[in-house]
Write a structure and sequence with these properties.
The protein is mainly alpha-helical. The protein has two helices and two strands; from the N terminus they run αβαβ.
């Protein structure tokens, strides 16, 4: 897959995830080992901006740092 196609696909998937957040009451972040990737960080911010409850598998999820 070329870089342009990869970029458009990622943008489409990011938008689709945000539409799913729009339909949800809350999101559940599976942050094994405390890891939260960049796309997931963006979705957490989006959910909070839209007054959605955010829950984490691991308690340290609120810090949004990779590997912490």
């Amino acid at each position: 897959m070329d870089e342009g196609t990869r970029s458009r696909t990622k943008e489409m998937l990011d938008n689709m995830h945000k539409r799913k957040i729009d339909m949800a009451d809350s999101i559940f972040v599976i942050n094994v080992g405390g890891y939260i990737g960049e796309s997931t960080k963006s979705e957490i911010v989006y959910a909070k901006e839209h007054d959605k409850r955010v829950e984490y598998l691991e308690e340290n999820g609120g810090n949004h740092e990779k590997g912490s």
